[in-house]
Amino acid sequence: MMAGVALVAALAFGASGARAQQGEAIDRVVAVVGNAPILESQIQEEIFGRQQQGMQPPTDPAAIAALRKQVLSDLIDQELVVQLAQRDTTIVVTDQDVADAVENRYREVRRNFTSEPQFRAELQQAGFGSPEEYRRWLTDQQRRRILQNKYFDTVRQRGQLEPVTPTERELRDYFDRAPDKGQRPAAVAFKQVVIAPRPSLAADSAARNLADSLALAIRGGADFAMLARRFSQDPGSGAQGGDLGWFRRGQMVRAFDEVAFTLRPGTVSDPVKTPFGYHIIQVQRVQPTEVNARHILIMPAVTPAEADSARSFTGRLRQQVIAGASIDSLQRLYSDPEEERQFDLFPIDQLPPSYAPVVQADSGAVTPVFRLDAPDSLKSKYAFAIITQRRAAGPLRFEDVRDQLRVRVGQELALQRYMDNLRRLAYVNIRETPNASLQSQ
């Protein structure tokens, strides 16, 4: 029944249908927000969903009442935000936005089941008569989720979420309330120098000329996706016709961002040079804080001699560090600007296989030169690192997460202050205390 558990956890589905079949009266109005009711069934759905995601159902009457009070409060906040988002004319949620989100979610859940009959049976157990009914429910849920996300994006852009600096006591209390502190993984801190092979001027010119000709062909009516699949050297997007999906400013390299966030939808850019090569960019859709684009990447060719030169140069820089040279100075002068220079206690189990020399080195050691593999081996980069600190695995401590908590708690306090203000300005009527019973599902 693991697939069923995965379905419930992914959906927090409408358990009200199943309960109604059991004869339980659950459609009482427990609160009104503006002119919209919040039903007992919604509270039951939310609690049921949280249980299926791992929450242990309380048995103490006081704990049950506290949980239900919190769930009702969360539902009120969500409804307040949805109503404000619907009234804000700058917030637009298209049917395509919702359809894409529904389709992604539906496929994610469907993958948990080995057969269509198994999937349908689990849906019926959850209270849905058919996959179509489930899709309709998902459509409403995803529309509300997108509305809430866009509303808070807009609020942040307008500077209406005033930052809050949490006290040390608030940080400690937040940490202490966590039921499972978890384990901190073994980690390593290091600085690295990364050298990329440099193509010749002739190779760079050839790549630029090819990119120019492709951009011209696309403007003349050639199919962008077909050319991307044929010519793009981006292993991640080329096979998908160059599609990059949605991304925010700062996720791409600066030169790419500067063009992508100024292009009008449908237009094709001139070749844009970045450390990766030459990009032909076409923005397909735009939202206030993100764009949906595709690109074709043409990379200058690298010869075996140029690749060998990069490896040898990396080795010479390593010898300088061993002899006492400052790795910080060498980074500023030579290291690839698109690669991170410093990693602060990075989890060892998340390092790619090429970083095996970093994993194996002792604190204070300078690693041998190692290769950062690229799909085209001649374009692989070469690196070495100096290990500044190692940390063994063990129980997670407050000190390990203080900085992350400061950001998270500060954001939650700012959001809480904002929602408190919304409630003071809105009509919220809690008509009765929700039924304190919490039935085991």
Give a quick summary of the entry.
By secondary structure, the protein is α+β, with helices and mostly antiparallel strands.
Structural commentary:
- The chain has helices at residues 2-11, 16-21, 40-52, 61-87, 95-110, 116-125, 131-157, 168-177, 201-219, 224-231, 254-260, 304-322, 327-334, 356-360, 398-425; strands at residues 29-33, 36-39, 183-184, 187-195, 243-248, 272-274, 277-287, 290-298, 342-347, 370-372, 381-391, 394-395, 428-430.
- With 441 residues, it is of the alpha+beta class.
- The chain folds into 3 domains: 2-161 and 411-430, Orthogonal Bundle (Triger factor/SurA peptide-binding fold), CATH 1.10.4030.10; 187-198 and 303-394, Chitinase A, domain 3; 201-298, Chitinase A, domain 3 (Roll).
- A 4-stranded antiparallel sheet has the order 9-4-11-10. A 4-stranded antiparallel sheet has the order 5-8-7-6, with helices on both faces.
- Strand 10 and strand 11 (381-391) form a beta hairpin.
- Helix 1 (2-11) packs antiparallel against helix 5 (95-110) and helix 5 crosses helix 7.
- The protein starts with a helix and ends in an 11-residue tail after the last strand.
- The relative contact order is 0.14.
Overview features:
single chain, 441 residues, alpha+beta, Triger factor/SurA peptide-binding fold, Chitinase A, domain 3, four-stranded antiparallel beta sheet, 48% helix, globular
